[in-house]
Amino acid sequence: MATKKSNKRLYILLVLIAAVAAAILLLPGCGGRTNKNAQDEAEAATLVKAGAAAPDFTVEMFDGQKLALVDLRGKVVLLNFWATWCPPCRQELARVKSDVIDRFAGRDFVFLPVSRGETREAVAAFREKTGYDFPMGLDPQREVYDRYASNYIPRNFLIDRDGKVVATSVGYEPEEFEALLQRVDTLLNR
User: Fold this and answer.
1) What is the model's pLDDT at position 28?
2) What are phi and psi of 84, to 5 degrees?
3) How far apart are CA 55 and CA 47, in angstroms?
4) 113, 123 in Cβ contact below 8 A?
5) Mean pLDDT score of the chain, rounded to an integer?
6) Alpha-carbon span 33 to 57, nearest angstrom
7) CATH classification of 31-188, choosing from 3.30.1360.30, 3.90.420.10, 3.40.30.10, 3.30.360.10?
8) Strand partners, 81
9) How many other C-beta atoms can be found within 10 angstroms of the C-beta atom of residue 133?
10) Are 111 and 100 in contact (CB under 8 A)?
11) Residues 58-100: tens digit of each pLDDT
């Protein structure tokens, strides 16, 4: 009798784990591009394409200061949209300190991560848990994000010194992220 009861609990636990895993993989707007249809959907959800002027915005930073994109003219900007609940976003953010901030320190470059649709409290808890202390923008109403895209994160927009989008990416793939950082290097060396 005890064996049947423990088998039933194990079965329920396995079903719950499978349901949680499926929910994470199927979260709308988060994740990698696993097939051509998903790539097409991500491209259709991109409102600002490479070659277009980056729409201006003002974002409240985590520390309470306001930052306007127009004030960053003359610098190369990597605008990154992310969320605390998004596994690929967390993978990408894990690389930021060493592969982005430290790599381009002292150069005319700004990494601008903007939390999409989340409260200050959610971002604060995430920062405390991860130990991240680099600047982050808050976009709880998706006012900034909705100027650039309608769905999917993580999402990057590389903006040149003149305010023009020169590259975009959706999802997180290490090779693609490294290629984006190579583009940053190229822009900074011009």
Assistant:
1) 45
2) -65, -30
3) 10
4) no
5) 87
6) 28
7) 3.40.30.10
8) 114, 155
9) 9
10) yes
11) 999 999 999 999 999 999 999 999 999 999 999 999 999 999 9
